[in-house]
Amino acid sequence: MTKLSIGFLHPGAMGISLASSAQNSGHTVYWASAGRSPQTHERAEEHNLVEVRSLNELCETCSVIVCVCPPHAAEDVARQILDTSFDGLYLDANAIAPQRAKNIGRLMDEAGVKFVDGGIIGGPAWEPGRTWL
Fold it and tell me: What pLDDT sits at residue 121?
């Protein structure tokens, strides 16, 4: 298995669960701390995510970016990624309408970024077999 450098935007209740699962699979998991809440800092520290200061640094470090954010912010977060030099794989795991995902995919494709439209079924996965991506 190839060990990946995976960046998570942003490690809230669901994101931290997915990030922990990626770590348990042998990958190195990063997060960008700039502008994040004290609760997010605590979660990331508790689960041993590797801190980088900025989104630019995250995008330079990671070959995969996983976005789990409030649905209303999906396009804005995607545009923030496109404002960096990121050229890896962007996984949008947000609960958004298919047309919104297609629009994000088109933007990523135009920028040369590989795009995966993902969906999460279930709550945060602290028990094996309870949540699927």
Answer: 78
Mind listing the domains of the chain with CATH numbers? 5-117 (3.40.50.720)
Within its chain, how far is the Cα of 118 from the centroid?
11
For residue 129, the model assigns a pLDDT of 56
Give dist(CA 126, CA 90) in Å, integer.
24
Tokens of 82: 């496109």
CA-to-CA distance for 91 and 114, rounded, in angstroms?
9
With a cut of 80, say whether residue 133 has pLDDT above it. no
Whole-number Å distance between alpha carbons of 87 and 59: 8
- pTM assigned to the model: 0.91
